[in-house]
């Protein structure tokens, strides 16, 4: 595990969307909080769960000040939950963490290391870049992931290996201006497409993947893959030309230019 520079303390917001995760949400919170002072806050957004998820998180938030809990009155999909979490986050670095134990929070320091070291503005944790521990599951899911990433790469002109990964970490100024409009699991495509239109420096790092089968609560299905095809076309070709798309790219590029100019000035002084 890479050493965390002291400057990283109090910077990281971990964003956790939850929906009917009563079996795993307590453990995932404990694992994230176990990262210690690296984590400034854990922003949990419940997307209208019908089980005890909200009750469990609310109890944790009552005793742990770093846990901030928000609840949607009805199920609106993962994009809506992440959008709310981004809005509420106050850290300089944001990372998405699912609540289902498929991704191990112990690897978060490795994912954000390129940002902390000043190399990256965005980091994707890739399940395929260099294969680490990975549960053997559905071949067709693997083909779908590879196919969607290939199509995305054709339009972004990037050589990414896994756009559908949960682990995406960002400098706040790169993700906060993005007004996400996709539904359900479309945020993976939308985020990738729009970030690739900016000058953000993007890295990938290898991660482990402890996937779960449908009988253990996996939610993504075949129709999500079909929808992703439309999202790839729309968010790579159409959205960047809209007023909101152009505004996002301008806001991010301006922020990146200002930060890099400040760093250059600091080096010269």
Structure description:
The protein is α/β, with parallel strands linked by helices. The protein has a single domain (6-268), classed as Spore Coat Polysaccharide Biosynthesis Protein SpsA, Chain A, CATH 3.90.550.10. Helix content is 42%, strand content 14%. Strands 3-2-1-4-6-5-7 form a 7-stranded mixed β-sheet, with helices on both faces. Helix 2 links the parallel strand 2 (39-46) and strand 3 (67-71).
What can be said about this structure in brief?
The chain is α/β, with parallel strands linked by helices.
**Biggest sheet descriptor:** 7 strands, mixed
* CATH architecture descriptor text: Alpha-Beta Complex
The portion of residues forming beta strands comes to 5-15%
Shape: globular
Any idea of the CATH class? Answer: Alpha Beta
Proportion of residues in helical segments: 40-55%
Q: How many extended strands?
A: 7
Radius of gyration: 18 Å
**Coarse structural class:** alpha/beta
Question: Helix segment count?
Answer: 9
CATH fold-type name: Spore Coat Polysaccharide Biosynthesis Protein SpsA, Chain A
**CATH H-level superfamily title:** Spore Coat Polysaccharide Biosynthesis Protein SpsA, Chain A
Distance between the termini: 33 Å
Average pLDDT metric: 89
Topology order in helix (H) and strand (E) letters: EHEHEHEHEHEHHEHH
- Give the strand line-up of the largest sheet: 3-2-1-4-6-5-7
Low-confidence stretches: 1-6, 214-218
Number of domains: 1
What's the layout of helices and strands?
Layout: E1 12-18, H1 25-33, E2 39-46, H2 53-63, E3 67-71, H3 78-88, E4 93-96, H4 108-116, E5 122-126, H5 139-156, E6 168-171, H6 172-175, H7 187-195, E7 202-206, H8 222-238, H9 243-268
Helix pairs in contact: 5-8, 7-8
